[in-house]
Amino acid sequence: MHILLVASAFNSLTQRVHAELRDHGHRVAVELALPGTSLAGAVDRHDPDLVIAPMLRTALPEEVWSARTCLIVHPGPPGDRGPSSLDHALHDRAARWGVTVLQANAEMDGGDVWASADCPLPPAGKSDLYRGEIADAALEAVLEAVERFASGTYVPRPQDAGHVRPAVRQEQRRIDWEADPTERVLRVLRAADSRPGVLDDLLGTPWYLHGGHPEDRLRGRPGELLATRAGAICRATTDGAVWIPELRAPRVPGGPVPVKLPATLALGDLLPPLPERPAPPTSARGRRTWSDIGYREDGATGFLTFSFPGGAMSTAHCRRLLDAYRAACTRPTSVLVLGGGRDFFSNGIHLGVIEAAADPAAESWANINAIDDLVEAVLTTTDRLVVAALGGNAAAGGAMLALAADEVWCRAGAVLNPHYRLMGLYGSEYWTYTLPRRVGDAAAARLTADALPVSAAAARNAGLVDRTVACAPGAFAERTAALATRLAAAPGTQARIAAKKAQRERDEATRPLAAYRADELARMRAVFDDPEAPYHALRRAFVRKERPTATPPHLTGPGHRTGRT
Length: 565
What we know:
CATH superfamily of the largest domain: 2-enoyl-CoA Hydratase, Chain A, domain 1
Strand order of the largest sheet: 2-1-3-4-6-7
Number of strands: 25
Number of helices: 20
CATH class of the largest domain: Alpha Beta
Oligomer: single chain
Shape: globular
CATH architecture of the largest domain: Alpha-Beta Complex
């Protein structure tokens, strides 16, 4: 079928629906619901067989839903209605939740149900759950609804009388540091971790708090700042403490949207002298604390985990991860696993930190060189096998970081965006070496030019990924650990390591890695140093949430058929 996706933004769920519908042989296009544009006119121009709205903050016009079947993806079970469904679920400590695909009509979220799926709600942030359990349930329901629609025989069932819940306001997110225990503080923070954040007073200044993780040992007067770690701040509660990784200043009326930043960077000179608490040692099992980088071993297998907010890796993130990688490479292991967490693997350089820098061009240059150093270290590791384990999405330089490994394992629900051009960049991270060696020159050119999301299954078919792992987000670490331990014990592993070393030497003799890096960075430097280059405006629009004036042209085409027909 020809399916049109209507969305407020091409967000993670819309990207996954786009990629997986294409895998199923459908022609898929996207139209963004933007102010000042005629959505009805756009739909008529596309003339689709079916309209699906994976993420829509506004109601579809009556002239659209009255003329053709339009399916709304609502992140709540049948009967749940309102704009803050997942927020309410987290505030109410729901153990399970669901997604409903319903037909658009005059009643918001009140249309007939085409399909639904339920899912668990483990203790995690809203955005993590949205990209994980909620997205899994959404795809299950969307694919079932599309199949039912295509049959031409299915009659959707009316909803029972639903419960319309209002949007969650900042008053309901308010934290009372003098009275609230850690459990409630975490619930509030997790229900607003990415959008909109929790408005709070910190050091006499209003800030939006983003993200929350428990701390089991540090104690202090409720509300007091206790320590820092890797850019995060630790704040005391009535019965413990929480780590808060990021802050965002409130918007000044008429001004641009402030950038979300690592907490210590955002506070700057406002931050009083605090002890920098190192990450707990590997032996400290069972701790309830937070660290964005960790390492452990199981026999001949090492696991270097990392999880940076939003998948963005600043210069400091890259340098600390490189230090941890080098330390891991001193250990007597034959397999080293990178990643393995349940959310983002990496999205490449940190555009927010770059935008907030006094000299964005200089910070762009520092950041790209720092991530290149990390990728080079992975590429030149010849004494063990390196596995990139993608429990969540990867994009741009983060996708290329994964391709530097010997094997790439993806959770089946992950989405890859192996391209740079939408940010006005040529790209670096040795992609001109790693991408063609996996998929060939023609496919590499197509992937980087099309700039479309790729599902884990399509990535495996294309050669980007070596293994897909069908499991829940929370099970990915355990599943990949078992696979990696098996790989380390496999009789052919040592021979593979020797062959890998010989291949690296042949490749280096043919064309040194330094030559790839020099060519890529020359193109990147020219863009960074040109204040008129589109990159600067595109970066600014991305981090400050500026809405486009029109749907990007690469999304409005019918898309490509992939997978089965």
